[in-house]
Specification:
The chain is α+β, with helices and mostly antiparallel strands and 428 residues long. It is built from 9 helices and 15 strands. The longest helix has 30 residues, at 284-313.
Length: 428
């Protein structure tokens, strides 16, 4: 088929740019409307609902977290309370293993070393100290422990640059009535937003419950209604854990990556097929297409895997440094590959190779960290990323044959800057 006219390409590029700007304005109408929140009167403790996390404690809790020391900047609901000190809760979750067994004549509980066998149904879990944005909650209590408080501790199971269960712990109460409120959520690192995207709160709550069910050091695990649901997938029922004695548990989470293999139907003899295949592979255009597809597919996976490996093996390197390097590799590597490698063939062929390779890369990247659900705005952003990379591949294929097609490459690079700025300045 003949190549579409230059004028059509220009119109298509203009339409794509208009759709991108329109999507931003539609998704974030506050861009056009002045924000008047600062003019409103801020809420006070008398304007919000407080709950009692411990039946014998005078301290009351606002069952949410907040970006700042204000009820108006609410973020996520508290979804678990453990009746005990934060240090004790962290000790239960972080330490290695606990062996438990009973027989007719004795009951035994003890802590084993890593190289000793244990009895019972041990679970593999990994909890580590971690970092994250500071979130506050409000505690109404007599004395100095009341008011706005930041996290007493942050721990996670998983990896910072992959997917993880992230816990923020807030200690309240005094003496034997001390309790630890927990905000638990499941999240994954989003390279385009340069921060984490929360996937589920209920999954993290159930996961946390399972750390305490059936343990001899737990008196009871129940659910109590705090009426703080309606955000994400929460229902307002909070897990309440009563501890009896300290212990150790050590989990390990295994990560599996599925690889799909396709088969090719052979109509001719095997020898003829091999000859045709070798001839096809020897062509420069074919080699460039394969290189482009595998490079776009592999970049998201390699950046994620390398970042997790550095995070786990070299903890002295700052998290922000690793994030910055990974972001630059994606921000520069993806468009550069799309512009340099394509040559020859129909331009739409290169568009297909680009979006197929990068699209599979995104899918395998999310699959490797266990992410199965994404917000609609994140999906829309990734589809826009695919469209812009495909546009750059078309421009890269034609720029050597026609210098006027350099305009398409320049337009694609401008749009690429736009899709990079989109998640950094507008919430997805």
């Amino acid at each position: 088929m003949p190549e579409p006219r230059i004028g059509f390409r220009r119109h298509a590029t203009t339409i794509l740019a208009i759709l991108l700007v329109g999507t931003l304005l539609f998704a974030h109408p506050g861009v056009l409307v002045p924000n008047s929140v600062d003019d409103e009167e801020r809420k006070s403790p008398n304007d919000v609902r407080l709950v009692s996390p411990h039946p014998n404690s005078e301290a009351e809790l606002w069952p949410f977290t907040s970006r700042g020391k204000s009820f108006d900047s609410l973020t996520l609901p508290i979804n678990a309370v453990v009746q005990g000190h934060t240090s004790r809760v962290v000790s239960h979750l972080r330490n290695r293993r606990t062996a438990e067994w009973r027989n007719d004549t004795q009951e035994w509980q003890g802590i084993s070393h890593e190289d000793e066998p244990t009895a019972g149904d041990d679970v593999a879990i990994e909890w580590h100290n971690t970092t994250g944005a500071v979130r506050y909650t409000y505690i109404d209590a007599p004395g100095s422990r009341g008011g706005w408080v930041a996290e007493t501790a942050q721990i996670h199971d998983g990896s910072y640059f992959g997917s993880r269960y992230h816990l923020r712990l807030y200690e309240g109460g005094t003496g034997g009535q001390t309790w630890t409120a927990i905000q638990a959520h499941q999240e994954h690192w989003d390279w385009f937003r340069l921060r984490h995207s929360v996937g589920s709160l209920s999954a993290a709550q159930y996961y946390l419950d399972n750390q305490f069910y059936g343990k001899w050091y737990v008196e009871d695990v129940s659910r109590e209604r705090f009426a703080n649901g309606g955000i994400a997938d929460t229902d307002g029922w909070v897990s309440v854990v009563e501890l009896r004695a300290p212990t150790d548990v050590y989990p390990i989470t295994l990560l599996w990556v599925a690889i799909l293999l396709g088969s090719v139907g052979v109509q001719e003899s095997m020898l003829s097929f091999v000859r045709e295949l070798l001839s096809w592979l020897s062509a420069e255009t074919t080699q460039r297409g394969i290189a482009l597809g595998f490079l776009l597919l592999g970049l998201p996976i390699v950046v994620r895997g390398a970042s997790i490996a550095v995070e786990m093996t070299v903890p002295t390197i700052p998290i922000k440094a690793v994030a910055g390097i990974g972001y630059v590799v994606l921000a520069v590597g993806l468009p550069l590959s799309a512009v340099i490698l394509p040559k020859g063939h129909q331009s739409l062929d290169w568009f297909g190779v680009a979006i197929l390779g990068l699209g599979l890369g995104f899918l395998l990247d999310y699959q490797s960290i266990g992410v199965t659900v994404l917000p609609i705005m994140v999906v829309l952003h990734r589809l826009t990323v695919l469209a812009v990379i495909g546009l750059l591949a078309v421009g890269g294929a034609r720029q050597q044959a026609d210098e006027r097609w350099n305009l398409l490459v320049k337009t694609g690079l401008v749009l690429w800057i736009g899709v990079l700025l989109w998640p950094l300045f507008f919430s997805l």
